[in-house]
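Here is one chain, start to finish.
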Amino acid sequence: MKGFVRVDGRQLVDPEGKPLILRTLGLGMWLVPEGYMFRFKGRYQSPTAIEDLTKELLGPERARLFWQEFRERFVTEEDVAAIKACGFNGIRVPFNYKLLSPEWSPGDLAGPGWQYLDRIIEWCTAHGLWVILDMHCAPGGQTGTNIDDSWGYPWLWESEADRARTVTLWREIARRYAGNPTVIGYDLLNEPIPNEHFQYKPMLEPLYREITAAIRSVDEEHVLFLEGAHWANDFTMFDEVFDPQIVFSFHKYWNKNDTASIAPYLELRERLGAPLWNGETGENTNEWYRECIQLMEDHDIGWSFWTWKKVDNANCPYTIRKPEYWDEIVAYTDGGERPSVEHARAAFEELLENIRLERCVRNDDVLDAIFLR
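Its structure:
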């Protein structure tokens, strides 16, 4: 790819200056596992809790090797080629800051996650896909739920050190990918500050400004995607566009697919003159997908479908086949009897085989709905 995607008024444009509608795919489960994607119950929902589960059932060394192999196999160049062939034009890559900076030190950048980001960007370059990097799990936790791998509270907003570390990480990410036109830009914080923690809402826009200044110190080209508070849906804290390359990103799940449902975002676009992006949508029925995507297209809003593949679930493009003994694992997460070591190891070893794309089931009905076919 030559040249950068950029903001032009109320729209994104490609390197040739033509309007660009992002039709991207969110890569959940890969670098930010969530319990429901495995069919897990109870407390085993966050990445750390799921890693604890594997340590409980496999032993710490087997668990370490499992996750190493899981990240190698879950997304391969074959997946990237298939994402392109399905009709998507980009990938939103959620990541956990711990994979980039595993120790509690702002200067520690020795995590294995950099190689995963480098590799998928390289594959996307080869296959003509854009990339948006999404900090799904920020230091301390921006949300206080399983999705940010925190401790049940959004400690990011109580910790000046964690906010400084977030700023440092974004500066280093931007330094690494400055000059890379495959990367459209950076999704600074996923779904920050739900309603029950709205005392922190006044802190969101100032932190975005601080991150932006850090990024711009090393990278003047890439787009910045800013999500609102309360699952990316409340933008009342914004009264100006403080950088020319800003896109406002909302998420849309489980509500009506009519203009009224997105009216606040349309008003935001008109009021501030910046583009919109539906940065996450999915987890519903094919009928709902079709209606939602049609609504986005009718209003010239790009979108990102969540997510690529999950265990024993057919409401996404690909289904991961359930391994033998998997029901025993799920039952254990729901308070049931502990599976034998033999059954647990067999189940997770088979999962490593089943996450390969060639072993998954392609759901053409989902893809037809997403792409309005």
